[in-house]
Every structure is written in structure tokens, then in C-alpha cells.
Amino acid sequence: MAEIFAIAIDGPSGSGKSTAAKMIAKKLNITYVDTGAMYRAVGLYCRRKGIDTKDEASVVTVLDEINITFKVDGDTRRIMLNGEDVTDTIRTQDIGMAASDVGAIADVRKKLVKMQQMIAKEQSVVMDGRDIGTVVLKNAQIKIYLDATVEERTRRRIGELNEKGIISDFETIKKEIEERDYNDTHRKVTPLCKAEDAVYFVNDGMTVDETSDAIIKIVDERLGR
């Protein structure tokens, strides 16, 4: 049986974690677990229910109503919220902020972390998020803290929005990213931070291929391959 291993990628919003993780999973033929999408799904559910995502007590009351699963569709993994495919619906700036809010709630993190750890016990995985190397996969063989400057991350976000036909202001998007950075690094529950044994990696100006290949090189070195 092939060795089961885990790659944990942490970093701020817009650093390219998810895109790189998906490519790494494909190149190494292992499972990609989109943890951020799971928090976005919780945020979406709360928004639809008219719940203030900053209101911990109200969010906790609906947790038992939320069932999140992944569905494989060719080369992609679709995220299902109570049986509904919400893969595209959750990719808005508003739902991103909602995800940041609910991600600061201990009971939400407890529920999702348990799900993520169970997946990693059964197969080799690559996960990205805010606390993968520090909380979710503390014993991961490979830990990466992927970073990029705020300006670089703003340009990337504007590019994504432009592709969808949405015109955005640089300073407005930059402010939103800085606000999310502050929320993620200052929350009381498992704030975003670099694990002591993680490799710090800045990918300003790098393509997704260059980023994923650089991380795979680190993986091979750590696994002695």
C-alpha cells in the first residue's frame, strides 16, 4: 500500500492556496480538500437564513441543519450543501466575508475540522486554509505557509472579477482584503499564523504552475523521493 501523507497549505486570502493545492492534487494524484469552501458553505447557509454571521449564538443554532459533502465531477470536486451544488454560488466576496465570520466561531470550526481530519486518515490529501498546519493537520508531513503582498493579491482578485465581467476599484478591493487579513489573524479561535515547522513561501509574480511545482519539490524532499 502506498504511503498516506498530508500536505497542509496555509496563508492569507488571495495568496493562491486553493489554485495551487488543486494543481498539486492533480499532479500527485491525491485528494484535494477545499476547507475554505466548507466555511463558505456555512456562511452561505446562514446568509440564506437571514442570520448575522457575526452572531455566534444564532449561527450555532443552525449547525445541525448543515450537511456538507464533496462530489467528484471529472477532474473537479463540487461542494454540496444539503444536496445542492453550491460550488459557484459560494465564490463571491460577500460569502467570503461570511466565511471569515463563521470561521471565528469555535463550534463551527470543531464541526468542520472533525470532518477534515477523518478524510485525511483515509487517504493522502492536500488541504489549504488558515489553520491546517497548526490545528487540522498538526502532524502533516509537509507544511507550507503561502504568502503574497496585499498589492499582488488585490491584482489577482480584480483579475478574477474582470473575467466575470465585474469592474472593481483597486483601493476598494485592497481594503476588503486587508480587512479579511485582520479578521483572520486576530480572531480568538485558531487565528491565521505560520506553523513553526512550515516552509514560508512567497509567490509574487509566479504562475500557478511555478508555485505548484516549487511546492511539489518540497514535498519530494520531505518524503525522500
Textual characterization of the structure:
With 225 residues, the protein is an alpha/beta fold. It is built from nine helices and eight strands. It has helices at residues 17-28, 35-48, 56-61, 93-102, 106-122, 132-136, 150-163, 170-186, 208-223; strands at 6-10, 31-34, 68-73, 76-81, 84-85, 125-129, 142-147, 199-202. The strands form two sheets. The protein has a five-stranded parallel sheet, with helices on both faces. The longest helix is centred in the middle third of the chain and has 17 residues, at 106-122. It is globular. The mean pLDDT is 92.
How would you sum up this structure in a few lines?
With 225 residues, the protein is α/β, with parallel strands linked by helices. It has helices spanning 17-28, 35-48, 56-61, 93-102, 106-122, 132-136, 150-163, 170-186, 208-223, and strands at 6-10, 31-34, 68-73, 76-81, 84-85, 125-129, 142-147, 199-202. It starts with 5 loop residues before the first strand and ends with a helix.
